[in-house]
Amino acid sequence: MISALNLRQLLNGNKHNGYVINCFVAIACAIILLGVGQTTAAEKPIRVAFLLPFNTESIKYDTLGNITGNVTTNTQMALNYYKGAMLALDSLSNSGLTIITRIYDTKSDSNVVHELLFNNAEMLNTDIIIGPFFMDELRVANRFSQRFHIPVVSPYVTSTSFVSKSPEYILSKPTLATHCKALSDYIDSIYKPSRVIILLSESQQDKNYYALFENALKQTNSKPSLYKLSDSSTISQDKIELYLVPGSSNIIFISSTNETFISKLTARLETMSTQYQIVLVGMPQWRESQTLKGSQLSKLHCIISHYADLDKNTTYFNHVNKAYINKYALALNEFSMDGYNDTFYFISNQADDSEWNFTRKPKDALCKQIIIKPRYKSNANSTSTTVDYLENTYVNILQYRDGRLEDVR
Questions:
Q1: Do 239 and 169 belong together in one domain?
Q2: Is there a domain that residue 246 lies in?
Q3: With a cut of 70, which residues of the chain have pLDDT below it?
Q4: Alpha helix locations (H) across 219-258?
Q5: How many helices (H) and strands (E) are present in the chain, helices listed first?
Q6: CA atoms of 235 and 289, how far apart (whole Å)
Q7: What is the pLDDT of residue 1?
Q8: Model pTM?
Q9: How far apart (Å, rounded) are the C-alpha atoms in residues 220 and 216?
Q10: Helix, strand or coil, per DSSP, at residue 79
Q11: Are the C-beta atoms of residues 81 and 52 closer than 8 Å to each other?
């Protein structure tokens, strides 16, 4: 067991053959150096770099190396993700792959990422980079990927505003536009609505999300009429009722992540649900809410989207969860599952000794499917077929029932 002091020393690009380092965090943090795999002349090792925001400089510890306070949110995220990744590397190494892993602390700083990528000769020998987590750091990583044609996986951020002609840039989670399309297609297939009521605040972020949803609805077979209500103070019950039809499913979309705004509207809609059949459509972020009421959303038949399945009652998940508990004495959490899924999928999907082919087939991974597709940004004046980025396009549809979310897709 190695102290927090040595954590700082180890997470700066130290090379380890095989499946290398474990990170464990509760209140304390430890690193264990695992067995070293041997590379034969006939094998070509896969070289992987992890760029994660461990922020080791912010960890407070005593003279014995014991952590004396809580770690930051970014550090917690990084360690959880990396714990899952290490379990995947265990599995891959046991299957016969030889993997050389380098671990870097980005310190949540784009300047640090620039130094790690552009002033580090080892990076040019890397087969795939997983991370960094955040937008400014990913801008740097995208430039590196474009210049040297080394795949970069974005494990967390799904924005593509800075990505163009980057066929090696990969989103491990779907974009909001993909979420909107999945929701719209589901609504179209189940309800075939002739109208959809949109309730949104006046924040620019909410308006941007509404625009994506509007565009997706227009491409469905139903092509419903859209009725938008937007008010900086209140959206009254009377205004909403003008567009409701008794005896049929009324689709209402709340384009907002403002929990106060959402709570006020859902309370009004709950009152109206005794007279009208309401199907509420929400946003992916609602799943993480601590204030929205599941019982209330169930009465409104609320539907949201998510990048993973909730059903964990599978043989594979139970097997991996058991291995994770044996390794860390903790059950898998969402970031650890992401770390496992991303690492296992992107490393195992090597087409041959010299080329990666991430789009060759969908793959089940724990409670998340991974379906990678090339994306092309629309440009009316261009006939270019250059891939702008790759995206995991799998989206699951969830519905509140009896106070909790269930898979319905």
A1: no
A2: yes
A3: 1-43, 65-67, 232-234, 350-357, 360-367, 378-384
A4: 237-241
A5: 11, 19
A6: 22
A7: 29
A8: 0.85
A9: 7
A10: helix
A11: yes
pLDDT in tens, 355-369: 566 776 656 666 678
240 and 123 share one domain? no
pLDDT at residue 12, rounded to an integer? 43
pLDDT at residue 268, as a whole number: 92
Residue 330 maps to a domain: yes
β-sheet with 152-154: strand ranges across: 12-17, 99-105, 46-52, 128-130, 152-154, 169-171, 389-392, 372-375
Do 357 and 216 have their domain in common? no
Residue for token pair 């130290």 = 14
255 and 402 housed in the same domain: yes
**Encoding tokens for residue 119?**
């002033």
376 within some domain: no
Amino acid 28: pLDDT: 25
**Number of domains present in the structure of the chain:** 2
Is the preceding peptide bond at 132 cis, omega within 30 degrees of 0? Answer: yes
The single residue listed with the structure tokens 């009722």 is 241
Same domain (yes/no): 279, 252: yes
Burial class (CB in 10 A: 0-12, 13-18, 19+), 276: middle
Decide: 145 and 151 in contact? Cβ < 8 Å: yes
Please give the backbone phi and psi of residue 346, each rounded to the nearest 5 degrees, phi first: -70, -25
**Distance between CA atoms of residues 90 and 70, nearest Å:** 28
Strand, coil or helix: 228: strand
Cα separations (Å) of 164 from 74, 143, 379, 388? 27, 10, 12, 5
State the Cα–Cα distance between residues 401 and 226, nearest whole angstrom: 26
Query: Could you tell me if 341 and 365 are in contact, meaning their C-beta atoms sit under 8 angstroms apart?
Result: yes
Q: Are 191 and 274 part of one and the same domain?
A: yes
Nearest-angstrom CA–CA distance, 161 and 139? 10
Q: State the residue range of the domain holding 217.
A: 176-306+396-407
How far apart (Å, rounded) are the C-alpha atoms in residues 409 and 407?
6
Residue 95 within any structural domain of the chain: yes
Q: What is the CATH number of the domain that holds 295?
A: 3.40.50.2300
At residue 104, the 3 state secondary structure works out as strand
Question: Do 31 and 166 share a domain, yes or no?
Answer: yes
Q: How far is CA 187 from CA 297, 396, 405, in A?
A: 17, 13, 17
In SS3 terms, 329-390 reads as CCCCCHHHHHHHHHHHHHHHCECCCCCECCCCCCEEECCEEECEEEECCCCCCCCCCCCCEE
- 115 and 101 part of one domain: yes
